[in-house]
């Protein structure tokens, strides 16, 4: 296995600063810093500034002034599209560094990270196109009252607080920043203490393209200070990706002041394997997909439901395929799964595995740490069978490489089990019959429902039913939450382009 020199550090010229009001700013308390640790070597490779309450307040003030008084929301959407395309190109120009940081912070395979930084700028390009083509103003028919001309206008919601998680920060920032920029909002981005590097680098991109001051502001903070962003009355909307527990708290705080919010939260997504689909092929697909980011993916298909008489066959097949996954250095092209992000995350996953055994599930492979790896927060690919849908394994999001196989008595029972969850982010059905697939997926209560694989499409819409979230991100649907709808009723048709 290639060796990563633990003394190697990432050179970010503004790592000890925040980007506020169009310039790099020394924190209120320069002595407060966060040490970022390489998940493979367990060695620090980056140290960044940690925000105090004063830093968050300054970032919000800059965004508020930029929205209320600056040029950004008053530009034409086409003008903003030019900046969005420049932002996309700035990410492409730094793709190598973005990819390295993502791998070292989160443990994603480097090959996957490189591919991801083709995808991330494409999201911004898509929102540049939407800025140019979306009908921000539409003539409307007068149906009552005394008006003679009406316009349905969609205007920017205002200042956005974007709270970005640690598993895929650049990607999950893109589906917040892209629509916010297209709409004409200004933004405060709060980076995760575990993975702040890519968000810092995005601020460098904003600075390099001359984004107007205050349009994008960046801080990194812990949970206590982050809550100040959610509470601040100068912030009109919160866009959050993270745990359901934190999402409940954010929704409660926003509800106190009727702030807008979009929440993309946890999942415990079900894959239903019907009787006409090949067991071995299902096992290969599900094992492959769970390798991505070591299972640290909210939309992972981790509850695998199959008819009772095929349960043991699928369990054997998954045990065989998943146990053969090569775990190791994510920079090694032969590796198929890297580490988890932190010792704390691994300890939590291992604790839930132990709970599963106590509750009676059958562990068939994994359940511990790989014996051949002395350093890094690695974890064995793990499979459980005979899992009760009322058990902890089936109810709680593990956020690690753990698959659970659940027996069902019929297709109807499989759908019932799939829907018997507080979550509803993703779902899939495995069958060779397209019509049967469509019929089953229509009955599964999930924001995305796919056929014969793990499917998500950020160009269409992404988000969850139930406690998996509120609102959608990606595509046209992801633009709408960044807009307020105004009905303009006039006594005549104006000549100005603004109405």
Labels describing this entry:
2 domains, disordered N terminus, seven-stranded mixed sheet, Aldehyde Dehydrogenase, Chain A, domain 1, alpha/beta, 499 residues, Aldehyde Dehydrogenase, Chain A, domain 2, six-stranded mixed sheet, 15 helices
Assign the CATH superfamily of the largest domain: Aldehyde Dehydrogenase, Chain A, domain 1
Helix coverage percent:
25-40%
**The CATH topology of the largest domain:** Aldehyde Dehydrogenase, Chain A, domain 1
Fraction in beta strands? 15-25%
Instruction: Tell me which oligomeric state these chains represent.
Output: single chain
- Give the terminus-to-terminus CA distance: 63 Å
Report on the structure:
The chain is globular and about 70 Å long. It has a 7-stranded mixed sheet with strand order 14-15-16-13-12-18-19, with helices on both faces. The chain is an alpha/beta fold and 499 residues long. The longest helix is centred in the N-terminal third of the chain and has 24 residues, at 110-133. 38% of the residues lie in helices and 21% in strands. Mean pLDDT is 95; it is low at 1-7. It folds into 2 domains: 18-265 and 468-487, Aldehyde Dehydrogenase, Chain A, domain 1, CATH 3.40.605.10; 269-451, Aldehyde Dehydrogenase, Chain A, domain 2 (3-Layer(aba) Sandwich). It has helices at residues 53-69, 77-93, 95-106, 110-133, 169-183, 197-208, 223-231, 244-257, 279-291, 311-323, 343-358, 392-395, 411-419, 434-443, 475-479, and strands at 18-20, 23-25, 33-37, 44-49, 137-140, 149-156, 159-163, 186-191, 216-220, 237-241, 260-264, 269-273, 301-307, 362-365, 382-385, 402-408, 423-424, 426-430, 448-451, 465-466, 469-470, 483-490.
């Amino acid at each position: 296995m290639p060796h990563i020199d633990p003394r190697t550090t990432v050179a970010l010229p503004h790592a000890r600063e925040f980007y506020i009001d169009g310039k790099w700013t020394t924190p209120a308390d320069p002595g407060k810093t966060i040490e970022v640790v390489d998940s493979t070597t367990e060695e620090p490779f980056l140290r960044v500034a940690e925000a105090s309450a004063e830093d968050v307040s300054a970032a919000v003030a800059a965004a508020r002034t930029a929205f209320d008084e600056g040029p950004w929301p008053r530009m034409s959407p086409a003008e903003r599209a030019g900046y969005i395309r420049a932002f996309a190109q700035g990410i492409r120009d730094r793709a190598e560094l973005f990819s390295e940081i993502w791998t070292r912070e989160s443990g994603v395979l480097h090959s996957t990270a490189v591919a991801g930084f083709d995808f991330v700028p494409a999201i911004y390009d898509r929102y540049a196109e939407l800025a140019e083509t979306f009908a921000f103003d539409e003539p409307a028919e007068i149906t009552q009252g005394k008006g003679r001309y009406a316009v349905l206008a969609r205007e920017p919601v205002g200042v956005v607080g974007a709270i970005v998680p640690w598993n895929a920060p650049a990607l999950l920032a893109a589906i917040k920043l892209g629509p916010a920029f297209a709409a004409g909002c200004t933004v405060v981005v709060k980076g995760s203490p575990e993975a702040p590097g890519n968000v810092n680098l995005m601020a460098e991109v904003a600075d390099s393209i001359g984004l107007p001051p205050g349009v994008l502001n960046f801080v990194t903070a812990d949970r206590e200070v982050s809550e100040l962003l959610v509470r601040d009355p100068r912030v009109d909307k919160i866009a959050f990706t993270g745990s359901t527990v934190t999402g409940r708290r954010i929704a409660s705080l926003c509800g106190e002041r009727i702030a807008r919010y979009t929440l993309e939260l946890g999942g415990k997504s079900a894959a239903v394997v019907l009787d006409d689909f090949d067991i071995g092929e299902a096992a290969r697909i599900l094992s492959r997909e769970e390798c991505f980011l070591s299972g640290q993916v909210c939309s992972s298909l981790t509850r695998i439901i199959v008819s009772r008489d095929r349960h043991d066959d699928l369990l054997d097949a998954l045990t065989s395929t998943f146990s053969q996954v090569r775990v190791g250095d994510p920079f090694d092209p032969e590796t198929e799964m890297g580490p988890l992000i932190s010792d704390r995350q691994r300890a939590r996953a291992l604790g839930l595995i132990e709970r599963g055994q106590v509750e009676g599930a059958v562990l068939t492979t994994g359940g511990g740490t790989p014996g051949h790896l002395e350093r890094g927060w690695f974890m064995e690919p793990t499979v459980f069978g005979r899992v009760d849908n009322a058990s902890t394994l089936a109810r709680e999001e593990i956020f690690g490489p753990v698959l659970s196989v659940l027996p069902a008595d019929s297709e109807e029972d499989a759908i019932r089990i799939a829907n018997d969850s507080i979550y509803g982010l993703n779902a899939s059905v495995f069958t060779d019959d397209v019509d049967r697939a469509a019929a089953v997926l229509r009955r599964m209560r999930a924001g995305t429902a796919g056929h014969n694989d793990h499917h998500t499409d950020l160009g269409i819409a992404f988000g969850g039913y139930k406690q998996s979230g509120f609102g959608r991100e990606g595509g046209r649907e992801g633009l709408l939450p960044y807009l307020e709808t105004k009905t303009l009723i006039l006594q005549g048709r104006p000549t100005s382009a603004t109405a």
